[in-house]
Structures are given as structure tokens and as C-alpha cells.
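>> Question from a student workshop board

For tomorrow's exercise we were told to take the sequence and the ligand below, predict the bound structure, and bring the output to class. My setup keeps failing. Could a helper post the expected result so I can at least see what it should look like? The ligand is PRP.
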Amino acid sequence: MSEFPNLTVLDHPLIRHKVTHLRDRRTPKKRFKELADEIAMLMAYEATRGLGVEEVEVETPLETTVGHRIKGKKLVLVPILRAGLGMVEGILRLVPSARVGHVGLFRDESTLQPVEYYFKVPQHAEHRDFIVLDPMLATGGSASAALTLLKERGAASLRFMCLVAAPEGVRRLLEDHPDVPVFAAALDRELNDHGYILPGLGDAGDRLFGTR
Ligand code: PRP
Ligand code: URA
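>> Workshop helper replied:
Here is what the output should look like for this input. Compare the format with yours to find the bug.
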């Protein structure tokens, strides 16, 4: 059995190709953002596979037939600010009706502990499916805190999607939130002494927003 039963690495050839460009230090800011969206969109196709559907009648130009639609209240995407914003547009291209909540967390660079500064999600969390977004799962502190905040609001159907995961972060989520499936485009080797993922792609927020 895998060490990480909570983890699905979505290693489709297109995703692997795009992740390589994302890692490349020479990739400019504009292309970095486009790649983050493209990868998130491809990942969302798989990460939403388990959503429930219900039958619905549809009239074709020739007759009435039975089709399907996604069941229940609208899906909610929850980017962890800032860097999670880089994945939202790509997924909205696939699921335009999804709602978007926001969790503001930054990682204190000396303690590596997450600090909360914003939280806003749609009502009726208990009846919704959530996908929490963050390009980087490093120690897992930020992701774990975001999932805890959502559970405190009543959310019961949660998925976590990241571009690059460190084993340390996946393990932390398995311990804190074993019920939450984790989807990653790549599982990297380890964290360095500053909590950065190796080989990783650097600071995702800085690369997305040009703030270094
Ligand atoms: C980065 C990243 C995650 C977090 C990952 O955000 O986007 O949110 O660090 O680290 P962890 O798994 O050890 O918690 P950062 O705190 O740099 O904030 P930013 O998105 O505003 O740049
Ligand atoms: N946050 C980032 O943006 N990159 C890392 O490698 C770790 C945390």
C-alpha cells in the first residue's frame, strides 16, 4: 500500500510537460501564471471525477431525452491567498458556475506557522463540495489550517489541490485531515532548512505576482 493513501499524483504527460516549464527559473511571470491556470484546469478534470450527478430531462431538436447535471449546490473553489489565486481562473474555465471563497493565510518565515488574515466562503458550507487551492504544499501548515477553518464552518466534502507537494506536507494532511483527498501535479523530494520544496519552483506567490 502507498505511503500516502490520501494522495493522487496527476502525472498526465501534458501536466508533466507544463510542470517542467513552471519549475524553470527562466519562465517569465506572464507564462508562469498561464501555466498555473492550464495545469489547474487539467487537474480539475480528474479532481472533480467523484462529484455526484443527477438525471435531468433535456429536449434535443428531435426529442426529449435524459441527461445529467452536477448534483447539489454549486462547487466552491477556495484559493489560499495569495498564491492559490493563480489556479482559480483555469478551473473556472472548466466549471464556470463554481463559487469562489477566500482564505487569507501567510506563512511566518521564521516559525513556518500559518497566520490567518482573511476568511470568506459561501453560506451553507455543509451542503457544498469544496476544492482548496494552493500551488505549494510544503510543511502542510497552511493547507491544514485552511481545511480546519472550513470544517469549523461545517464543510464536510473537501478536496485539496496543489501543483507541487512535499512528502512532509502530504504526511501532515494525512495526519490532520485523513478524510481529505489530495491532488498534486508533482510529488517532490523534500523541504530545505527554510521550508522550501526541493526541487520545487521557488516562491509561487512571488513568481505569480512579481514581488521578489
Ligand atoms: C506559500 C504557499 C502556501 C504556503 C506553503 O504561501 O503559497 O500557502 O507558503 O507552505 P506550508 O505548507 O509550509 O504552509 P506564502 O505564505 O508564501 O504566502 P503567499 O501566497 O502570500 O506568497
Ligand atoms: N511556499 C512556496 O511558495 N514555495 C515553497 O517551496 C514553499 C512554500
